[in-house]
Design goal:
Length: 259
Amino acid sequence: MARHRKPLIAGNWKMNLGLAESEALAKQIKSSLPETPHCDIALFAPFTALGAVRAVVSSTPIWLGAQNVFWEKSGPFTGEISALQLKDAGCQAVLIGHSERRVIFGEKSADLRKKIGAVLDVGLFPVLCVGETLQEHQAQKAREVITSQIQEAIAEFTRQKLKSLTIAYEPVWAIGTGKTATPGQAQGMHDFIRNRLAALFDNEFSLQTRIIYGGSVKTDNIDALMAEPDIDGVLVGGESLKADSFIRIINFARRAIHV
Ligand code: PEP
C-alpha cells in the first residue's frame, strides 16, 4: 500500500562534533545522496556548527535543524536562542522536548507548548519528542504518559497551524542504551499516537502527520522499523555521527519503503 507521508530521516548530533568534524560529516552525507532523495533528511547540529553545516547543505534537500529553542522573540534571556535567530541561521526544523531536555533540564509541557508556538510563528518545522521512561514503561503507563505529553504540547493549536508538525516517539529506555523497541512495539505506539491525533483533531490530520521513531536505531534494525506502516522515519542519535552508518540508514529506509 502506498505511504501517504514522505519519510523523514533525521540525525541528532547532540553536544558532539566541532566545526571541522561537522562540516566533514555533512559533506559525506551530501555526497552520498541521490538528486531527488526518496525521503526528507534533517541534520540537528549543535548551535556552534549551524553556520558550517548550512554552508554545506544550503543548495541540497537536506534540512538544517537546531536541537532547542527559546520561545521569546528577543530580550534579556542570556544564553538562549530565539526561533527567528534559528531561521536567520538557516534552520528549517527544530527539535522540541527531546527527553534529555525534559529529564536533565526539567523542561515541562507548558514550556514545550510555547516553543512549538514560537517555531510555527516563524515558519520552521517543529519535531516534538515524546516518550516514556523505563519506570513508566515497566509500570505499563506508557500510553497514559504519551497521551498527556501530546495533549499538553499541542491541543491548544489548530490543526491548520500544526500542518508542519512531526512527532518523534522516543522511548527513553531505548535512547543511547542499545535497547530498541521492537518494530512491533514501536508500530503499536505509533498507531496509538495516530489515534490520539485523530481524537484531538480529526482523521485527516492524524493521517497526514509524520510520526518518526527514535531509540538506538541502527543499520541492522532500520529496515524492519521502516517496513511498519505507521513508522514514517527515524530520529537517530549515536549512529548519525558515523557517516557510513547514517548513509546506510537513509538507504535502508529507501529499500524498506519500496517493498
Ligand atoms: C536521540 O538522541 O534522539 C536518540 C534516539 O539517540 P540514539 O539513537 O543514540 O539512541
